[in-house]
Amino acid sequence: MASVNLNPEQISRIIEMAWEDKTTFEAIQLNFGLTETDVIKLMRSQLKPRSFALWRKRVTGRTSKHAGLRDYKVTKAFSPSQYKVTR
Question: Is the pLDDT of residue 6 over 70?
Answer without folding.
Answer: yes
